[in-house]
Every structure is written in C-alpha cells, then in structure tokens.
Design a protein that fits this description.
- The chain is of the alpha/beta class and 208 residues long.
- The radius of gyration is 17 Å and the shape is globular.
- It has a single domain, classed as Rossmann fold (3-Layer(aba) Sandwich), CATH 3.40.50.
- The chain has nine helices and five strands; from the N terminus they run βαβααβαβααβααα.
- The longest helix is centred in the last third of the chain and has 16 residues, at 167-182.
- It has a five-stranded parallel β-sheet, sandwiched between helices.
- The relative contact order is 0.16.
- The protein binds flavin mononucleotide (FMN).
- Residues 16, 21-26, 72-76, 113-116, 158 line the site of flavin mononucleotide.
- Flavin mononucleotide (FMN) binds at residues 16, 21-26, 72-76, 113-116, 158.
Length: 208
C-alpha cells in the first residue's frame, strides 16, 4: 500500500507597493498561484491603510506549515508593510517568549527580487555585503520564533533579467520550489548548506 504524503500548507505574504510597475514579482505571483492548496495574500491589497488584523494574521499562520515572504528589495530591506506585519503579528507569547512557540517547526522562506547584481552584493561590490547579510534580521527573527530558515530564493539584477528574458524561467523555478515545499520534497540538509537557493540547482528530491 502506498503511503499518502499529506501536503504541506504554504502561506505567501506578498508585499509590493507598486505592482503596476512589477515584472518580476508579477510573474512569480502568477506561478505561485498555480500551486495547489497555496494561500497567496497580497498585504498591500488587504491592508491599504496598513491597519493589520493581528488576530486574523496569527490564525492564518497557525493554519500553515511554510511561511513565505515574497517582495522586491527596497532600500536594502523589505517594503515597509512587512516590517509593520512583523512588529504587530509576531507577539510575545505567540511567536516568542514565554509559551511563545506557535511557529515552532514551520519553515520560513524569503523569495525576493533585487535591482542590483550579485556582484554588487559582495564584499568588493557597491553594497559591500551580501544580500543574505542584509536579510539577517529576518533570518534571526525566524530563528527566534523557532522556525526553520531556508536560504533565500533571489532574483538579482531584475531589470537585466527582464531584458534577457530570464524572468519567466525564474518564475517557473519558483513554482517548482513551492511545489517541492508543498509535497515536502525540498532536501533541507542540502538546502541549508547553501547561501542561497540557486535556480540552476534547486535541491529537490524527485518523486519515486
Ligand atoms: C523605492 C525603491 C528602492 C529600491 N531599493 C533597492 C535596493 O536597496 N537594492 C536593490 O538591489 N534594488 C532596489 N530597488 C530595485 C527593486 O528591488 C527592483 O526594481 C525590483 O526587485 C524589481 O521587481 P519587480 O519587477 O517585481 O518590481 C529599489 C526599487 C525601489 C522602487
């Protein structure tokens, strides 16, 4: 008898304040929405006045196994609504601190797009640090909340990627990654040994 693997529930919290200009995240959103059973929340559409419903957000977190923040890098960081969301939703006693273990064991993934190249995000580059370093506050937040931090899935040089027709492939690989997370086929020990999840070699266990 074949054992049925219960699919993991993925929640994408998407933050892009200027979606009418978006190419990369728009393509990624289309790919993500095709993943069965995935919940896709457009935070700016849901909270145009940034009045986040903490109770609803916490309930939604409890209902999912994998939490994804999808966003364009703005000023070396996330768009502001994601910071507001963290400040309000990740409460003491819920996400951390005494009895604050409600997110324990969930997986956390950043899917971000950056205007600058990976070379710019290097010690010798204009930004002097890797993008993974700029994203450390999210990594440490995930750790404090006892979540499993998956190395970020990044599209660098978004404008060049658009001009070279690479965005479509990036979106396809994003869909493949999300499908692997949904069916629990991401090889976690291999994934966490890397600095980033590289689209050319996603550590996905094939189905037998
Ligand atoms: C206000 C603003 C700030 C930005 N700051 C950065 C930044 O700090 N680093 C970077 O690599 N790109 C930066 N960018 C470029 C965006 O990350 C890039 O346009 C986006 O990832 C492309 O995705 P999209 O096609 O979905 O909009 C910035 C763009 C804007 C509009």
């Amino acid at each position: 008898m074949t054992e049925q693997v219960k699919s993991k529930k993925i929640l994408i919290l998407f933050a892009h304040p200027a979606q009418h200009h978006s190419k990369a995240n728009a393509a990624m959103a289309v790919a993500a929405k095709q993943v069965e059973g995935l919940t896709f929340i457009d935070l700016y559409a849901q909270y145009p006045r940034l009045k986040i419903d903490v109770e609803a957000e916490q309930k939604r977190l409890l209902e999912h196994d994998v939490i994804v923040f999808q966003f364009p890098i703005f000023w070396y960081s996330t768009p502001s609504i994601l910071k507001e969301w963290q400040d309000l939703v990740l409460e003491f006693g819920f996400a951390y601190g005494h009895d604050g273990d409600k997110l324990k064991g969930k997986k956390f993934l950043i899917a971000a797009t950056a205007g600058r190249s990976d070379q710019a995000y290097s010690v010798d580059g204009d930004n002097k640090h890797s993008l993974r370093t700029f994203l450390k506050p999210l990594e440490l937040t995930a750790e404090l909340c006892q979540m499993q931090y998956i190395p970020p899935f990044i599209l660098h040089a978004s404008l060049e990627a658009q001009q070279n027709g690479e965005i479509e492939n990036h979106a396809i690989e994003y869909g493949r990654l999300l499908n692997a997370l949904s069916s629990d086929r991401l090889n976690m020990s291999e994934a966490i040994s890397r600095e980033y999840l590289n689209i050319s070699q996603l550590p996905i266990n094939e189905v037998n």
